Every structure is written in structure tokens, then in C-alpha cells.
Amino acid sequence: MRKDKQKVLDEVWDDDRVRSFLGKTVPTQSGASFPGDPDFYVLRHAYQSMRPEDFSRFLAFYRAEGRDVRARDGHGRTLAEAIAGHAKAAPFVELLNAD
């Protein structure tokens, strides 16, 4: 971490900030969108950015919009399948698999 940057711990995420992740767009590479369902990239970005308790709130907003929790990436994997091997993914996988 750069010396001029302070590490932020226990930052409070309000509902507006959590909802802002719903507007994430599909990333591109060389001008072409990544393959797969756009909802997958919204979920992945939220997973990479949030703590489980914030991700749980995000999923409530996400589902309320009728978005697909089982969206697939370009390899045909859901987010739960793609992150299953990550060391700290268990609470996220549990949230994704809850119906």
C-alpha cells in the first residue's frame, strides 16, 4: 500500500452505496464484451468488493430487480461455482445458493 493511502477498516456501507453496484456493466477487452451473462459480472464485482453482510443486502436489491443469481460466465459457471475454491468464499456461496 502506498504511504499516502490509509487502510480503511470497518467502513460502513449504506444502502445507496450497496445499490450502486447494480449499475455495473460488463467489462470489455479490446473493445469486445466478456462472454457470458451480464448479471454474472454484476455479481462478481459485488463479491470482489463487499463483505458478506454487505453482499447479503446487495443480493436482496439484486433479486428485487428480478436479476439472475444463477447467471453464468463465459465458461458456463455460476458465481457460486466459480468462487467455490476461494479461501473465504463459503459465506458468499451460502448466500448465493439460498433461495
What would you say this structure looks like, in words?
The longest helix has 13 residues, at 52-64. Helix content is 44%, strand content 4%. The protein has helices at residues 15-20, 38-49, 52-64, 79-83, 90-97, and strands at residues 28-29, 32-33. The chain is mainly alpha-helical and 99 residues long.
Keywords, separated by commas or semicolons:
99 residues; mainly alpha; two-stranded antiparallel ribbon; 2 strands; globular
Q: What's the overall average pLDDT, rounded?
A: 89
Helices and strands, in order, run as HEEHHHH
How many β strands by DSSP?
Answer: 2
Count of helix runs = 5
The radius of gyration is 14 Å
Q: Hey, roughly how much beta strand do the residues contain? A: under 5%
By helix and strand content, what is the structural category? mainly alpha
Largest sheet: 2 strands, antiparallel
Instruction: Give helix % range.
Output: 40-55%
Give the end-to-end Cα distance, rounded to a whole number of Å: 39 Å
SSE topology sketch:
Layout: H1 15-20, E1 28-29, E2 32-33, H2 38-49, H3 52-64, H4 79-83, H5 90-97
Antiparallel strand pairs: 1-2
Task: State the gist of this model.
A two-stranded antiparallel ribbon has the order 1-2.
